[in-house]
């Protein structure tokens, strides 16, 4: 009976100790088992001892953390992605060219986005320089100068409005001036130091951007090439008016006629003589002029002699043939003074 009573007492004592263990652990933040920091089997970390105060402390720490500025290298949730970067002119181009860059990006919720274009090259000392700042504009025109001659890189950053960091970026190599440049094929296998991932292949902006078509022109077929090399015959020149013969010219407003007016033609040159008829008087005249196509220009003047005619008159004629009619205008002079002008008509006597 003594042995059984002792066993029962030990069992009750063990049960009592086990029942007291949870109670001890729920009290203060210290380890209920004492200082076990030197015992690797029983060490309890500081966070484990914090109990229910951990969540509130963590949220307070997060709330007080400074916001990350836009354009920093820290990535947010990467909700915005750039699908392509297009350029108006292929690399390389000469300095002075205006080159337009356009980014195409999206995000799952179609939220408004901001874009930032940056340049690294000879003009920036090889460092990326912000060219636009954050803007809703998804394109930028690079007006190149002599300072840009060499290898350049254009980087595009994108983010959603209200985000605290850029969410995607693309970097494109571009060469200004004559020389080699990094091709898009080679660039696709390398990554920039910004951590933006592999470089994309450079696309050329299409006709909707109003830029020249850069597609190569197919070579002409042999027959076309031969035809292009042979000078084409020029259009047949208009036939020169045949003005040689006996003419009658009337100065309508002056009541004067030159009849006859005998003209001799050599190529485009004319010369001749005739009679100047005015108020019943007849004066000898001399004529020179030219003809081109259907137009005739004549200068006719009276012959002044020391012991003969003393009347110094002349007339300039501008005549054009239309169908069978030759007409135009005249200017009448007395010496160097113009004394009349008007319409003139001319007719050629039948041979």
Describe the structure.
By secondary structure, the protein is mainly beta. Among the domains are: 81-209, Immunoglobulin-like, CATH 2.60.40.10; 245-348, Beta Barrel (Lipocalin), CATH 2.40.128.30. It is 15% helix and 38% strand. It has helices spanning 2-25, 46-50, 54-63, 184-187, 222-229; strands at 81-87, 98-106, 113-120, 129-130, 139-143, 150-160, 168-176, 203-204, 245-251, 256-266, 269-278, 281-292, 295-302, 313-322, 325-334, 337-348. The strands form three sheets. Strands 9-10-11-12-13-14-15-16 form an eight-stranded antiparallel beta barrel. Strands 5-2-1-8 form a four-stranded mixed β-sheet, with no helix packed on it. A hairpin with a 2-residue loop joins strand 12 and strand 13 (295-302). The radius of gyration is 51 Å and the shape is rod-shaped.
